Amino acid sequence: MIELGDQGVAKMRKKWIAVLAAAMVLTAGCSSKETEKKEATEHKEKEIEVDEVVAPEELPYQFPLTGVGAAEESSDRAVAVVVNNHPKARPQSGLHKADVVHEVLAEGDVTRFVAIFQSEQPEKIGPVRSAREYFIDLASGFDSFFIAHGYSPEAKEMLERGEIDNINGMQYDGTLFKRADFRKAPHNSYITYKNIVKGAETRGYALDEAPAPAVFLSSEEAGQLEGTPAVEFMVKYGSPSFDAIYEYDTDEQKYHRFNGSEETVDLETKDPVLLDNILVVQMDHQVIDSAGRKVIDMASGGKGYLFQKGKVNEIQWKNETGRIVPYKDGVKAGFVPGKTWINIVPSISDVSFDSQQ
């Protein structure tokens, strides 16, 4: 059930944090012509940057996974990295530049991220964690070059069969993957984008074919989105350490992400993760062994919510060539140009939100 109310954002935020805390007990003008010309040029460039986000159709090309305008056609291959989300691994590096991030359970109530990079290339990504078979399935939907450090027995078999181009920290620990001295294993493995490219070259993998584009709304369509107001909501994963809160910023027209009171930001730059689309989807989860490893049904489709522009709509999701695609009223629901976060949950009842006009 959708939980609706009329509390403000400040009260809402306090409520979510209180819920998590309770569970934890049981986060000068220039005159020269050259200067004037330079300022005019910089102003024009800023206008172009705004157009790239607000009106991507005004530029000749779009990045395939964000829909954001680009001056040149992108031919870069997508790169998928399994990123650690343990509290000891936060804040992470590079997540703010991912086009798409999947948040999904591993063993127990611990979530990990499968981050897809294409339009931007962060200098460093991590901490990198081990693969699960369904992580590989998610990465395969984008024909990604897959990066992980370690693997479950099932994932190891898939990688050894060559089901996806990859490099793994089990073979390249200390060379392509570096251990940070300010964190302890297994929360300290990092890889630079330069070493990702080097790893692909070493293994003979091409990185010059862009993924198929997602479906995006035009600026006009995005501005006319309808739905139930949802300026703040929480996705529960069974542990307050991993429950996620999303808060809509009406000025930026983007969502911020939090674990409790702690915002998801980049370790090095402190830049926040800013999201234009948050897709929450219900999938059947089954525990398959004593270690708590899971099988997740990513093929059958099912219920979900799509949060955009401070509003939410109920959707049905389908698996199309390995990707999770939202449908509303039998038609594909386009994404707002920008970055997307996909929360995969065992039950859609794990989502709760309040509203504010």
From TrEMBL:
InterPro entries with a match to the protein in the record: DUF3048_C, DUF3048_N, YerB-like_sf
Q: Which SUPFAM superfamilies match?
A: YerB-like
- Domain DUF3048, first and last residues per copy: 65-205, 242-342
Record-linked Pfam families: DUF3048 (PF11258), DUF3048_C (PF17479)
What is the name of this protein? Lipoprotein YerB
